[in-house]
Amino acid sequence: MISLIYETRDFIAVNKPAGVLVHPIKDSREETLVDWVLKRYPEVKNVGDDPAIRPGIVHRLDRDTSGVILIARNQEFFEYLKNLFKTHQIKKTYLALVWGKLEPKSGEINAPIGIKSGTIKRTVWQKRAKDLKEAITEYKVKKYFKDFSLVELNPKTGRTHQIRIHLASVNHPVVGDKLYGFKKTEMPFDLSRQFLHAFSLEFSAADGHRIKIEAELPEELGMIIDTLEKKR
What we know:
Layout: E1 3-7, E2 11-16, H1 33-40, E3 66-72, H2 75-86, E4 91-99, E5 106-110, E6 113-116, E7 122-123, E8 129-133, E9 136-145, E10 148-155, H3 162-169, E11 196-204, E12 210-214, H4 219-230
Parallel strand pairs: 3-11
Antiparallel strand pairs: 1-2, 2-3, 4-10, 4-11, 5-9, 6-7, 6-8, 9-10, 11-12
């Protein structure tokens, strides 16, 4: 269920659950985050670059990624947030459970991402890609488990599927990732989504004070960590 985390006259922050689309897609009638927002904040309907489709939406999360997302309530703040994202002035922190022991324990994945020819899938393999763009992700392992690593990630750029592609490119894909993950590996627990959560966003407000917004790990992901802890 979508829940409100933070609210000001300029923007709101919500915790988006996995399985929910941010905005409508063609030929789909399922309820989206945008529907939820418009019911509660109707003024948002005229905000954004494409308010008919994405009112108030400055950034997005994949359907099966949970966590913090910001929605602007007026055009002025939309432009302010848009510039912060564009100039990489918003610190984004994600949590992911990945396959294997990711080493070294901290580091940076710097690999341009492009679109795989003939598909909508992204890739870092340059000979197979077009429209390559710089992509940088910093990471830090929080805990090692048997067969898994719990990782904190800070994407420095904002490419589509960036974290998922970068982790897969170093052979440590996100657990449960159906697009970029291992295809036939059996999981020792039930998981119907990818284990990727947008944990926090941190940025400076127009008056200079810092704002940090966090969304706790969803229950279904927390239970998996508890299970792995017991097996350590």
